[in-house]
Write a structure and sequence with these properties.
14% of the residues lie in helices and 28% in strands. The chain has 6 helices and 16 strands. It has helices at 28-41, 51-57, 60-64, 69-74, 77-87, 142-145; strands at residues 94-101, 106-113, 118-125, 130-137, 148-153, 160-165, 185-188, 212-214, 219-225, 245-250, 256-262, 274-275, 280-283, 295-300, 310-315, 326-328. The strands form 3 sheets. Strands 5, 6, 7, 9, 10, 11, 12, 14, 15 and 16 form a 10-stranded mixed beta sheet that branches. A 4-stranded antiparallel beta sheet has the order 1-2-3-4, covered by helices on one side. Pfam families: Peptidase_M23 (PF01551). Residues 210-299 form the M23ase beta-sheet core domain. InterPro entries: Cell_wall_metabolism_enzyme, Dup_hybrid_motif, M23ase_b-sheet_dom. This is M23 family metallopeptidase.
Length: 332
């Protein structure tokens, strides 16, 4: 089964590391006591959505018994407790931000504290084994987080789409660390928690591939690329031309929308064209630095991907998309 991690324009870091601790030598008596303690918890069930609550409550043994064996080999219960106690200082509560299917058998959960200054990620399989866990401080950019576009944008798609990357911290949106794409969205189509059916190496197997992409607001087309071939086999990427095939639209107010990774030859507009919201731009592809067919959508203050600064998108109906959301486009 193909693991699902979307790359777009920049490479992302796959979550799955440990807590930043390395094993240390312990006395045999300490090891035996630790084993007895963890064995007492081994029969208890842990609800994945409550991992952060249990962690904050200090029931580290309960979580530790659900860590995979390779994970437990990397960190002892004693180290896990110490790390948790230090990290939880000053935290009143953790809030579940995202629930993201990674494969048929694994789901990734993301929590942050209220201020989004501390974050936690856990990857859990269908047997409730925690195969990956990460806790880390988070950087925020509150000044730009609270500044939205003057233009109101609609969804650039029709039907139901899944937000794979989106939100205002790097755990739910890897773009967030890059000021030129900070508020970007990556969207895929999903059916039964899968983005494809059949041969995962072929673009045509993906539900998103070939779907229509529409102008998200009125504006003038300023730049287009339409000749970059789609990546195949799926999973290979073209970092030399990160955006692949793309359309950039000037909406006024120094606001430029970027829609990227179009299917080769599918773009229907050219520089100088005036487009209206909902007008067809082209079709979803897998060109550029993209690991599977999807829509990349962001707004910047310049028609230059590298030099511009991303602006948080004001969406219709005061929507604010987050990783894990299913969002509804034209016709819904």
């Amino acid at each position: 089964m193909r693991s699902r991690f979307i790359f777009c324009l920049f490479s992302c870091i796959i979550i799955g590391g440990l807590l930043g601790c390395s094993p240390s030598k312990e006395e045999p008596s300490e090891i035996k006591a630790e084993e007895r303690e963890t064995n007492m918890k081994a029969q208890e069930k842990l609800q994945p959505k409550r991992i952060a609550d249990v962690f904050l409550d200090g029931d580290y043994e309960q979580i530790y018994t659900h860590l995979s064996k390779p994970f437990q080999n990397e960190i002892s219960l004693k180290q896990f407790k110490k790390t948790g106690e230090n990290f939880n200082q000053g935290v009143e509560a953790y809030y579940l931000l995202s629930e993201l299917p990674l494969t048929e058998d694994t789901v990734q959960y993301v929590w942050t504290d209220k201020q989004e200054t501390k974050g936690m990620v856990a990857v859990v399989d269908k047997e409730q084994v925690i195969t990956g866990m990460r806790i880390l401080p988070l950087e925020t950019f509150q000044e730009t987080d609270n500044k939205y576009t003057k233009t109101i944008f609609q969804q650039p798609f029709e039907g139901d789409w899944f937000v794979f990357w989106g939100g205002t911290n790097k755990l739910v949106n890897y773009h967030y660390e890059h000021k030129n794409q900070r508020y970007a969205y990556d969207l895929i189509k999903m059916i039964d928690n899968q983005s494809y059916e059949g041969d995962s190496s072929k673009n045509e197997s993906y539900y998103a591939f070939g779907e229509n992409v529409f102008a998200p607001a009125d504006g003038n087309v300023v730049e287009v690329e339409n000749a970059i071939k789609d990546n195949e086999p799926v999973g290979s990427m073209n970092a030399a031309v990160p955006a692949g095939n793309y359309v950039i639209i000037d909406h006024g107010h120094e606001e430029f929308s970027f829609l990227a990774h179009f299917k080769k030859g599918s773009v229907k507009v050219k520089p100088g064209d005036h487009v209206q919201a909902g007008e067809l731009l082209g079709q979803v592809g897998n060109s550029g630095n993209s690991s599977e067919p999807h829509i990349h959508f962001h707004v910047g203050d310049l028609p230059d991907l590298e030099k511009g600064k991303s602006i948080r998108i004001q969406l219709e109906n005061e929507e604010d998309w987050m990783q894990g959301d299913t969002v509804y486009g034209i016709g819904k």
